[in-house]
């Protein structure tokens, strides 16, 4: 009859092997997590002669919307790059351009700034389309300011929670307001928009007020391409204040607002990450990244889970007459400095996990020794 001591002792339990396996798993998980954190989402999509300038995110349908330099259309682009013509409006003047887009989720509409370039007759309007029926709700011509003899350019659009839309005039340097019923007026034509010298001999020298975004505190933030300035505008009375920045945002085009209050500003070559701690009396660029100039980025949006995306619509190619391109791109962009912080937090969490594992391993070792003593 075998004795108790002849049974396999608890010390034969492969604690060392388990430790090695667990450590290997942890380091493998860290590697995978770091790679995933550094990857970004790229959406390649195809549509002949599209050359989209405006980009919006539809949170209800969970897809992107893009306009067109050449077509009177708004297209939906899925995460997989599948393109569907969502809006087609042949009743508009031929060869008009669909520029800035904004989704008014509360009223289930998409708003689009429409502009006709020379040699076409002047035409600037805001159109609203129902996202369910795809029917046009209104087409509002945008009025000229008193004494303004320049050819206006309706460029970008933003919407507030009451259904009002705000459109920038990039040549005249003023802002239109269009209410829920499509009634248009001039919200702000402040002299503060034209006090700064314009940078000449650049591709954006003609372009003044451009990207616009609404902040739910009751004001708008607008960037100016040819001076690099940012302005804060009261949405009700049009009062203007210049936002004091630590650097000019030269060539600034599209603007987007993240859920944490960070403002993203894109130009054809760069993306800035800007924040403010005093309600945008002042702002600071805390990070910036270089973008592919060949893609000529024009718009930035914030999509699902506060992820930021930039549109590479190749607009300059379209302006210069290229009619053969059919491939375009929407690219996720991340702040390198913020990503570093995420990686640090990841390592901290792994460190805590390792400490917990080592403590567990020590406790198990003591338990095994105690059990062996009792058995022997």
UniProtKB/TrEMBL annotation:
<dbReference type="InterPro" id="IPR053224">
    <property type="entry name" value="Sensory_adhesion_molecule"/>
</dbReference>
<keyword id="KW-0812">Transmembrane</keyword>
<dbReference type="InterPro" id="IPR011042">
    <property type="entry name" value="6-blade_b-propeller_TolB-like"/>
</dbReference>
<dbReference type="InterPro" id="IPR013658">
    <property type="entry name" value="SGL"/>
</dbReference>
<feature type="transmembrane region" description="Helical">
    <location>
        <begin position="344"/>
        <end position="362"/>
    </location>
</feature>
<dbReference type="GO" id="GO:0005783">
    <property type="term" value="C:endoplasmic reticulum"/>
</dbReference>
<keyword id="KW-0472">Membrane</keyword>
<feature type="domain" description="SMP-30/Gluconolactonase/LRE-like region">
    <location>
        <begin position="51"/>
        <end position="309"/>
    </location>
</feature>
<dbReference type="Pfam" id="PF08450">
    <property type="entry name" value="SGL"/>
</dbReference>
<protein>
    <recommendedName>
        <fullName>SMP-30/Gluconolactonase/LRE-like region domain-containing protein</fullName>
    </recommendedName>
</protein>
<keyword id="KW-1133">Transmembrane helix</keyword>
């Amino acid at each position: 009859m075998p004795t108790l001591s002849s049974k396999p002792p608890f010390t034969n339990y492969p604690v060392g092997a388990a430790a090695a396996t667990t450590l290997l798993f942890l380091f493998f998980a860290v590697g995978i997590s770091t790679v995933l954190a550094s990857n970004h989402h790229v959406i390649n999509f195809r549509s002949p002669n599209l050359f989209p300038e405006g980009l919006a995110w539809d949170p209800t349908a969970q897809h992107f919307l893009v306009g067109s330099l050449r077509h009177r259309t708004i297209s939906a682009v899925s995460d997989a790059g599948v393109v569907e013509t969502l809006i087609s409006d042949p009743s508009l003047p031929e060869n008009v351009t669909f520029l800035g887009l904004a989704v008014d989720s509360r009223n289930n509409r998409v708003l689009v700034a429409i502009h006709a370039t020379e040699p076409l007759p002047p035409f600037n309007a805001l159109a609203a389309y129902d996202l369910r029926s795809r029917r046009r709700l209104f087409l509002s011509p945008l009025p000229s300011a008193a004494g303004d003899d320049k050819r206006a350019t309706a460029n970008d659009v933003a919407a507030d929670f009451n259904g009002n839309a705000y459109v920038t005039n990039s040549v005249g340097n003023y802002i239109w307001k269009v209410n829920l019923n499509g009634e248009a007026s001039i919200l702000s034509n402040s002299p503060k928009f034209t006090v700064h010298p314009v940078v000449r001999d650049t591709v954006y020298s003609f372009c003044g007020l451009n990207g616009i975004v609404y902040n739910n505190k009751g004001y708008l933030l607008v960037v100016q391409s040819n001076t690099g300035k940012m302005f804060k505008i009261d949405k009700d009375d049009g009062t203007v204040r210049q936002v004091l920045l630590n650097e000019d945002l030269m060539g600034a085009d599209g603007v987007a607002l993240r859920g944490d209050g960070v403002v993203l500003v894109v130009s054809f070559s760069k993306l800035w990450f800007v924040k403010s701690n005093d309600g945008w009396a002042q702002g600071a660029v805390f990070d910036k990244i270089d973008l592919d100039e060949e893609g000529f980025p024009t718009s930035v949006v914030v999509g699902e889970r506060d992820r930021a995306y930039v549109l590479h619509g190749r607009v300059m190619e379209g302006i210069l007459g290229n009619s053969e391109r059919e491939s375009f791109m929407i690219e996720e962009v991340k702040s390198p400095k913020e990503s570093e912080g995420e990686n640090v937090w990841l390592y901290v969490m792994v460190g805590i996990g390792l400490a917990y594992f080592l403590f567990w391993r020590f406790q198990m070792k003591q338990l095994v020794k105690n059990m062996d003593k009792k058995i022997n």
